[in-house]
Amino acid sequence: MTKKNMMKVRENNNNLLLLVMLCTLFSSGFEAHALSYDYSATIECLANPHKPQYGGGIIVNPELNHGLKGWSTFGKAKIQHRESGGNKFLVAHSRSQPYASISQKLYLRKNMLYTFSAWIQVSEGVAVVSAIFKTRSGFKHAGANVAEAKCWSMLKGGLTVDTSGPAELYFESKNASVEIWVDSLSLQPFTQEEWSSHQQQSINKVRKTNVRIQALDKQGNPLQNATISIEQKSPSFPFGCAMNKNILNNPAYQNWFTSRFKVTTFENEMKWYITEPSPGQEDYSVPDAMINFAKQHNIAVRAHNIFWDDPKYQPGWLNSLSPTDLWKAVNKRITSIMSKYKGQVIAWDVVNENLHWNFFESKLGTKFSGVIYSKAHALDGATTLFMNDYNTIEERGDKQSEPAKYLEKLREIQKYPGIANAKMAIGLEGHFNTPNLPYMRSSIDTLAAAGLPIWLTEVDVQSSPSQANYLEQVLREAHSHPKVNGIVIWSAWSAGGCYKMCLTDNNFKNLPTGDVVDKLLKEWGSKAAATASMTDANGFFNASLFHGDYQVKMITDDHQATRDFTLAQNFKVASNNVASSQETLILNV
């Protein structure tokens, strides 16, 4: 045992040693043999496409090395096998309909989860190209990307089908005048068990670390049957819930909420139409009280929002302002709220839902978002600035907010002067109906290629008999994705009902959705009982722990040692109470 692989807790008075060693994770036998999921995606337009993921999966002739084998026309188009610089690909030309393209017939199975990818190009300009599967029960949108001329773009997506049966893959672009070029295709099916194994593999890799604890006496001899107790005090992964002003005077709501969550977003209380309903009459008394409540309970706050681009949710008095006066009001608003809460929040939703709406752009110009993010960075350069929108991971085929459009808007903002060094992040609201997990995962893969933090910011599921089950699916998928950095559920409580999904009844007894949350909190450590066991003949005790703040206790017949420590991944030791997979730590109790 070397100093490079252990953390040591020493009880000074009694000379007992507690050694905590960070060990390599070992997967279960099933995980070791299941086909791993490929989380990679490319958002650059490249001179040549990459090889198809999974060797093409069930696609016939995925690299197009065998001419037109497996491929045919779809709609009124002609197809051609071409080669350029040694790269072979298919071209759909002479297209007279948006859906006229190449196609391949397949057989898809219900209860399988399919991940899809292809590399696409168009003959001139730029055009959105979608991958569609025609099935017995309808057309399934698998994904889309913006294709360019003279370079290859990766389209990554996914789908499930309602019934087993024949299906036909084809590509679609509203611009019927361009040729669609396709190469390096892949369609890989996974069983439900394999999909779950991917989640567990990812959790083991990015959310947990195995620790080995050894108890020694003052001579350095192992202590058999010493009791080791480990309790998580706070998780490192932010998992929270929205709250509203009802919490301020409702002890039952307070107790239910504070016993579960350490991060929140105010449902409406920071929005402009709430804080300034009449021009010049600002009232921050309610969000002030909520901020103070959050501080008292060590709850981090995401600031939501500075501006909302939806015309339905504006202070009514804005509509009569001239562009000059509207700019004055906008500048006053952003300066007021950011100056007030700077240093008290962990994030800002700056221009909310600016993919779907354009209230401010329509009145103040198309560069409004860039101007505002630049100003926000100048006012609070230390805090993360989020884009925040819906249907990027929830619904297939929302042309306004699919991953390619999200990234296009993000790049537009990042190119604006003054943004270069801003701490930007990706906010995905997550208002689900029926989750499509392959599409959700692949969409996050694509967004993650931008290299920015990703949060699910407003998670809920439409009411249905499957609501709780669907919520669990979404939360597990998000929590296990290696590039997701936090989750907030959109279930602030009101006596008259929640936005879409409540977690409790009006007596703060859990509904099935609340039971799901508690189940996952316990599983992920924050509501779990302390893990306790006896050391073996060599003084060892092993545990696999989620990253977070812990208290470890060692108890023998006549001695006890207690110490707090933080278990993290890929962080160097910053103080003498942080343990990571890279550093050795000696703790003196």
UniProtKB/TrEMBL annotation:
<protein>
    <recommendedName>
        <fullName>GH10 domain-containing protein</fullName>
    </recommendedName>
</protein>
<dbReference type="InterPro" id="IPR017853">
    <property type="entry name" value="GH"/>
</dbReference>
<keyword id="KW-0378">Hydrolase</keyword>
<keyword id="KW-0624">Polysaccharide degradation</keyword>
<dbReference type="InterPro" id="IPR003305">
    <property type="entry name" value="CenC_carb-bd"/>
</dbReference>
<dbReference type="Pfam" id="PF02018">
    <property type="entry name" value="CBM_4_9"/>
</dbReference>
<comment type="similarity">
    <text>Belongs to the glycosyl hydrolase 10 (cellulase F) family.</text>
</comment>
<feature type="domain" description="GH10">
    <location>
        <begin position="224"/>
        <end position="520"/>
    </location>
</feature>
<dbReference type="GO" id="GO:0000272">
    <property type="term" value="P:polysaccharide catabolic process"/>
</dbReference>
<dbReference type="Pfam" id="PF00331">
    <property type="entry name" value="Glyco_hydro_10"/>
</dbReference>
<keyword id="KW-0119">Carbohydrate metabolism</keyword>
<keyword id="KW-0732">Signal</keyword>
<dbReference type="InterPro" id="IPR001000">
    <property type="entry name" value="GH10_dom"/>
</dbReference>
<keyword id="KW-0677">Repeat</keyword>
<feature type="signal peptide">
    <location>
        <begin position="1"/>
        <end position="32"/>
    </location>
</feature>
<dbReference type="GO" id="GO:0031176">
    <property type="term" value="F:endo-1,4-beta-xylanase activity"/>
</dbReference>
<dbReference type="InterPro" id="IPR008979">
    <property type="entry name" value="Galactose-bd-like_sf"/>
</dbReference>
<dbReference type="InterPro" id="IPR044846">
    <property type="entry name" value="GH10"/>
</dbReference>
